[in-house]
Amino acid sequence: MAYVKQLLDKARSRLVMVLDEAGVLDVSRLLRAGTDIVVVCDTSGAMAGIVTKTDMVEWLAGGQNIHKDARIGSVMRPNVLVCGLDDELHDVWSLMRAEDVKNLPVLDEDNRPVGVLNARDALGILLAETENEEALLRDYVMGQGYR
């Protein structure tokens, strides 16, 4: 059985965080190639929401004027799906697929972000796990026993 914590190193490498008082222009500069999601935190370090490239484009397309003092709190999504380190990867993948989510913040027990889980990484682990089970079953059926 695979768990989110198995992907912690990759999830950490994707984590980009800002404080909820950060400027919209500063955060938009962080949403570059390879960064699809920015996790917004309050002053205690707990997650307050997220901002994605899509959120930013929709905000701009909605006719919002970018004021140099605009704060990210006016753009971020406060209610988002999250996962924890001890969550079973298959369950998290099912949730991501059902909700059509590509990236999911990973939180510790204090609601602090520790990474961003990417669907591709989760699927890679699940595929490897399935391939291993298939090989064990094939060996067993062929009379070779378990490796």
- Enumerate the spans where pLDDT stays under 50 for 5 or more consecutive residues: none
Tell me the span between the first and last alpha carbons.
18 Å
In percent, how much strand structure appears in the residues? 15-25%
Using DSSP, what is the number of strands?
A: 6
What is the fold-level CATH name, i.e. the topology? CBS-domain
Structural notes for this entry:
There is one protein chain. With 147 residues, the chain is of the alpha/beta class. The protein has a single domain (4-141), classed as CBS-domain (Roll), CATH 3.10.580.10. The chain is built from five helices and six strands; from the N terminus they run H-E-H-E-E-H-E-H-E-E-H. The strands form two sheets. The protein has a three-stranded mixed beta sheet with strand order 1-2-3. A three-stranded mixed beta sheet has the order 4-5-6. Helix 4 (89-99) crosses helix 5 (119-141). The longest helix has 23 residues, at 119-141. The chain starts with 7 loop residues before the first helix and ends in a 6-residue tail after the last helix.
SSE blueprint:
Layout: H1 8-14, E1 17-19, H2 24-30, E2 37-41, E3 47-52, H3 53-61, E4 83-84, H4 89-99, E5 103-107, E6 113-118, H5 119-141
Parallel strand pairs: 1-2, 4-5
Antiparallel strand pairs: 2-3, 5-6
Helix pairs in contact: 4-5
